[in-house]
Specification:
Elements lengths: L49 E2 L4 E7 L13 H14 L8 E10 L8 E12 L2 E9 L6 E11 L2 H9 L6
The structure holds octanoyl-coenzyme A.
Octanoyl-coenzyme A (CO8) binds next to helix 1, strand 3 and strand 6.
């Protein structure tokens, strides 16, 4: 699949955090009203991201009617949000809370309503506070990739980063 993203050649190798969620286990929510993973949002992706046994994660997402963009197929922004969530959760495996600074998505095939997307994301490496990731999605056959993504996240101090906006939050 063609893409424009080129990670640096000198990425630092990484290891799992000793307290990282175990392989096959659900990685905890960012927060309960997160659009990507929260349980308490009426409209949200409700993604359950599962830790792999290395520096990877997986998730599944049923493609339901409200996600429609073109007739009968998923909206590209919804798919991008799912990639954002899945890639943004993976750095918790190395104990790093992050926010997205760059996300690119390659759309290879139309993704029909009624299908189930299977995501896989993996950490490629780190450079200072920057964490590089790659992800892909298929509809049940891992050999048939329907979309892929590359992302750059930056580690943050969660308390400081969200301090200004936390009091303006809307809990649905
Ligand atoms: C708790 C986690 C919830 C996760 C939810 C799911 C993921 C999300 O959707 S997060 C929401 C969307 N993202 C955001 O809101 C982030 C908005 N951006 C910011 O707040 C700031 O840019 C922030 C804090 C990330 C970085 O700012 P700051 O701390 O000043 O660092 P800064 O020096 O600018 O950038 C750090 C490094 O990243 C690089 N960088 C920053 N943005 C980019 C970019 N778009 N492309 C390439 N590199 C970038 C910088 O060049 C710098 O590199 P180096 O260390 O080599 O000099």
């Amino acid at each position: 699949m063609k893409h424009a993203f080129v990670p640096p050649a000198d990425l630092e190798p990484l290891v799992r955090h000793p307290k990282a969620t175990g392989p096959g286990q659900h990685i905890g929510l960012h927060h309960s009203t997160c659009f990507g993973c929260g349980d308490d949002t009426p409209l949200g992706l409700h993604l359950k991201v599962i830790a792999g046994d290395d520096l990877s994660v997986t998730a599944q997402m049923p493609v339901v009617d409200w996600m429609q963009g073109g007739p009968g197929v998923i909206h590209g922004g919804v798919l991008s949000a799912a990639f954002d969530e899945v890639t943004g959760t993976a750095p918790l495996l190395i104990g790093a809370p992050v926010v997205t600074v760059h996300l690119e998505v390659d759309f290879a095939k139309p993704i029909p309503l009624g299908s189930t997307l299977h995501f896989e994301a993996r950490i490629l490496g780190k450079q200072g506070r920057k964490i590089y990731l790659a992800a892909s999605a298929h509809l049940g056959d891992p050999e048939q990739i329907v979309a892929s993504a590359h992302a750059l996240f930056v580690t943050i101090d969660v308390q400081k980063h969200f301090a200004e906006h936390y009091d303006k939050r809307v809990i649905l």
